[in-house]
């Protein structure tokens, strides 16, 4: 049963308003408020309103535009809970930045095949540990292209979900039997610091560079299963230099931090694509760690391959950042400074 908004009540100060909304399902209302009402507190802080709970009603008090917006966000988040999806701080931030993002998807299509997302159904990725939802329109378009194209590029700033979503799609396609293995790679380039020689064998030396890929996999696969898949080489995580001479067939292949690949490395990697494989290249043009004067292979790939229909290019901005809201503000500040 949907939430019901009650008429606003006049207050002594005509610039202020009280807007009440009823949520009939008490257990969903508890989830909407969050532990210790932290979701309400978050919304109060961001909109400069006060939200009171009166039985099954929430009342937003403040300047009328802000109170109306608070109620609109609460209704959207409640609809999300009705659809069986969780609500957290990231969902509140997303709804404030992109109104309508949390609207309830069609229940009938939730358990359908991946083709539902190409028919206007919800865009979601099923993994062994959780259901992954792209949160912005750019992310949804990116995920659709990952399923539809044999080669896809995701380009944009840190925190926009480029690698995370690519790895999630790779795990989903492996679970569905569409690929036989997952190969994740990055250039082993230090981010502005010379760390010197690292101790240990080859795996010990390269693992620090690959840690973000391990982190993503741990989100989608149970620990024991992931360890077994790594041991059996069903999942491979390797530096870009290790790709030379291979033909990658029936595999889902991700090249992360592609802005740090040289032109020759990028050409070498792209030409590894074999029968039945998918290849995803992600990168951030603002974080190139190559030696000064050395061109980025990602830039050349954009220039040379942009006109090939079967290769998709998806671009992200600070508006697509799904980490802490401050990350988006930081990125926008740096972009504004560079534009001067």
From TrEMBL:
Q: Which residues cross the membrane?
A: none
The answer to keyword Ion transport applying to this record is no
UniProtKB keywords? ATP-binding, Cytoplasm, Nucleotide-binding
Q: Domain PhoH-like protein: where?
A: 132-335
Quick check: keyword Nucleotide-binding in the entry? yes
- Compartment(s) where it occurs, according to its Swiss-Prot or TrEMBL record: Cytoplasm
Where it mainly occurs, coarsely classed, is cytoplasm
Q: Which GO terms describe its molecular function?
A: ATP binding
What Pfam families does the record tag this protein with?
PhoH
GO cellular component terms given for this protein: cytosol
Q: List the InterPro entries.
A: P-loop_NTPase, PhoH, PhoH2-like
- UniProt similarity note: Belongs to the PhoH family.
Q: What is this protein called?
A: PhoH-like protein
What organism is recorded for this protein?
Pseudooceanicola nitratireducens
């Amino acid at each position: 049963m949907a939430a019901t908004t009650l008429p606003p009540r006049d207050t002594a100060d005509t610039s202020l308003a009280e807007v009440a909304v009823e949520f009939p399902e008490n257990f969903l209302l508890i989830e909407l408020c969050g532990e210790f009402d932290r979701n309400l507190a978050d919304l109060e802080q961001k909109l400069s309103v006060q939200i009171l709970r009166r039985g099954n009603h929430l009342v937003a008090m403040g300047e009328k535009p802000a109170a109306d917006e608070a109620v609109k966000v609460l209704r959207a988040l409640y609809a999300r809970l009705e659809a069986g999806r969780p609500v957290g701080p990231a969902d509140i931030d997303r709804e404030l930045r992109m109104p309508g993002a949390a609207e309830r998807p069609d229940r009938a299509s939730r358990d359908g095949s991946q083709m539902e997302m190409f028919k206007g159904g919800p865009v979601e990725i099923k993994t062994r540990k959780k259901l992954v939802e792209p949160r912005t329109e750019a992310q949804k378009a990116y995920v659709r292209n990952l399923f539809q194209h044999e080669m896809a590029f995701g380009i944009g700033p840190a925190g926009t979900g480029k690698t995370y979503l690519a790895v999630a799609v790779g795990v989903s396609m492996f679970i569905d039997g569409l690929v036989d293995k997952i190969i994740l790679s990055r250039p082993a380039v230090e981010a502005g610091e010379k760390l010197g020689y690292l101790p240990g064998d080859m795996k010990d030396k390269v693992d620090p560079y690959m840690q973000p890929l391990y982190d993503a996999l741990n989100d989608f696969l149970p620990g024991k299963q992931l360890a077994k898949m790594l041991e059996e080489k069903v999942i491979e995580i390797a530096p870009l230099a290790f790709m030379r001479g291979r033909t990658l067939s029936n595999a889902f292949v991700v090249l992360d931090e592609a802005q740090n690949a040289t032109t020759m490395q990028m050409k070498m990697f792209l030409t590894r694509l074999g029968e039945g494989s998918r290849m995803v290249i992600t990168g951030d043009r603002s974080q190139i760690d190559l030696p000064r004067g050395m061109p980025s292979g990602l830039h050349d790939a954009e220039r040379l391959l942009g006109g090939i229909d079967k290769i998709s290019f998806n671009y992200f901005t600070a508006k697509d950042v799904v980490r802490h809201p401050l990350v988006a503000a930081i990125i926008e500040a740096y972009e504004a400074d560079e534009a001067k």
